[in-house]
Amino acid sequence: MTASNRARNEYRRSPLDGSVAAVPPRAEARRRKRPDGPEPLVWTFDGPIERTLADLEDTLRRAIVMVGGVSRVALLIDLSLPALQRRVVAGDALQPAWGRFQERLAGYGLPSPPRVRPLKGDGPLATLVIAYRN
Fold it and tell me: How does residue 38 score in pLDDT terms, banded at 50, 70 and 90?
């Protein structure tokens, strides 16, 4: 947080002795600075690549129906590189499954393609994060 975004203390002079004291910002002021809107929806997927991508697409389709339209969503897919490496070593092929997944997503009419963020930490193969507005 930069200095310009921080809530600043107020200074008040005591009516009794004339001393100046700092008064911290109120909690309500801090709460108002938080962005309005619902918390993002988050799902995790693990397993073979083909099944994970199919489950991810199915969940996305259901979330779009729940939210009320594709114009209201932004997508992020976190991919765990260690989990992906284990799947490839186990014999799963990333291509052509990923290509087919992207082709199917293009048919949904999303305002922008999903952002894919590779993670170096171990965890589930994929995490789908859907941010939306009411």
Answer: confident
Q: Let me know whether 99 and 81 are in one domain.
A: yes
Phi, psi angle pair for 15, to nearest 5°: -70, -20
Predicted TM-score (pTM) of the model is 0.69
Is 129:42 a contact under the CB 8 Å cutoff? yes
Q: CA distances (Å), 51 to each of 19, 37, 56, 62, 74, in order?
A: 68, 32, 8, 17, 23
- Domain that residue 49 falls in: 41-132
Q: What angle do CA 82, 128, 37 make, to 5 degrees?
A: 140
Dihedral over Cα of 124, 40, 33, 30: its sign: negative
